Amino acid sequence: MESFLFYFLKPIKVLVLLTLLFAISRLNWKNQTHRYVLSLLLVCFFTELFNSILKSKEQSTNLVTSLSIIIHHSLWLLILERFVIVKKTARILLYCFIAFAVINLFFMEGTDGFDYYTFVIGAFLYILIFIYDSFYKLKKEDFPFFLSNNYLLLLAPVLFFFGLSFMFGFKSKSITSFIIFGDVKLYTFIIYFVNIVYYALINLYLYREKKIKNE
Question: What pTM was estimated for this model as a whole?
Answer without folding.
Answer: 0.91
